[in-house]
User: What shape does this take?
Amino acid sequence: MIVLRSLSLLIFGLWLSCGSALADKRVALVIGNSAYKNAPRLANPVNDAGLVGGMFRNAGFDTVEIRLDLNASEMRRSLREFAARTRDADMAVIYYAGHGIELDGSNYLVPTDAMLETDGDVLDETIALDRALYAVEPAKQLRLVILDACRDNPFAKTMKRTLASRAIGGGLAKVEPTSPNTMIAFAAKAGSTASDGDSRNSPFAVALTDHLPKPGLDLRKAFGFVRDDVLKKTGNKQEPYVYGSLGGSDVSLVPVRPVAAAGPQANPQESVRKDYELALQAGLREAWEAFLQTYPDGFYANLARVQLKKIAAEEDRTVATEKARLAEQEKARLATERAQKAEQEKAATAAKAAEEARIAAEKAKLVEQAKAEAAERDRKAAEAAAAKSLAEKQALEKAAIEAAAKQAADKKAADAESRKVAALSPPPSSPAPGDLAKSLQSELRRVGCLSAAADGDWNAATQRSLTLFNKYAGTQLDAKLASVDALDALKAKPGRVCPLVCNFGFKADGDQCAKITCKAGYHVGDDNECEKVPERKPPPTARDEPRRRDQDRKDAESAAPKSQASGQMICNNAGCRPVAKGCHLGPVPNANGSAKITGEVCN
Assistant: This one.
């Protein structure tokens, strides 16, 4: 019997595990410390641990261990056992909610029995964050530690410092993990504190359960959404922060479920139902416990718990029956041996109590058996209704697929007919030359290469405009003809191509010419820039004539060639020669009688 029972359990375990044998192994440890012995009780860590642990279970983690209100030795043992489970895991996650403390730049998790009277007690009575990192280190793909431990810590306010220079900060200290693919998420940025929340759960824990289990969502983006939610809920007072880094590939806590092939879909509860029926055939407590470990929630999980209660009632009835039998035997033995009356009465009372317990256990068994039978009837009715609904859904899906296939076939036939008609139809005629030229002129105006109106006349001005377009657009279009290729090339340009040219007195301002305005005393010069207005001299009068002639004479004397030999040589543009005998250098009158130049004066 023992061999058969063990064999059935082995077969059932293999049956449950075959579906996920090829999937990545994910393990999680959840710790929530609320009942501190030497500090006020925290309201939410235990609630947050239950919430986050349930999230991991619903996300399909292989093992999720939830531990509450742990003292120092229990925390160390839990981390040690978890480290053993991570050796063959692909993903390992630790979530801790409770008090944390920072000492000289290192972070510590505070167990419920910590006293922390001095700063030196931190090393003895707390658990270093490095110990949690060590526990997740064996995981192959992802090592994640989530700390909801940045609350305002009462220990930091009361403990005595053994060294005045020793730093005990508020919140936790920044940490940089050394192992690859490791992330550490803080409920609040390093050096700041987190809110415990006004409701049952902290804002950080609620945001985690909202975003981390989304299938296929990369953890970096998921924690970004968590940050946004917490900032919003706390009025920008609390900012979660993530330390560490991952590689270039997306890493999600919950993988995306593969998309099934098109066609009628199988009932997603079919595999659960088969496992349930297998456990029902086994009828053993171990089988139902294994089933609930694999499927902790849902319709079939509730049915499994009813079956467990039925088994427990049967076990209680068996124990009560055995006790009643033994009590009756003891009563008969004492009567046979003619024992004292007190002993016989005591034995009779015990036998009566045992019989009453047996009867109560028998009734309890019948009640639980009735409940189990009713649950089985409800299950079969629900499965029949689900099967009917699934059949109707599959029929609708099949009809939709057939309709889509018919629509696709009709479209394919219509497209073929259209191609056939198009092959028999003559090609569309080209636009009229006048319309084409006008369209080209409109496009040339748009790109800034033509200023004249679009009149459809492909004249020399339009041809020069297209040549200008070729210059600035780098094209080689034939400017003598209005062509469709030229129109396509112009339409391909989104904005101005030719530079803006403005008339004299105007300058370019964006796509328009603006008039140049000069300040007082300046005007627009030949270079189209503002320059100072020159002063105007009044025309000469009769009174100025002698002064003018005298100035002209002086100018002539300064411009005339001078002798290079102290009166013996005379030089001019043709060269130098000796002064003629009997002559000397002096002013020589010009044609109008005024002395203007220097030359030979002969006696």
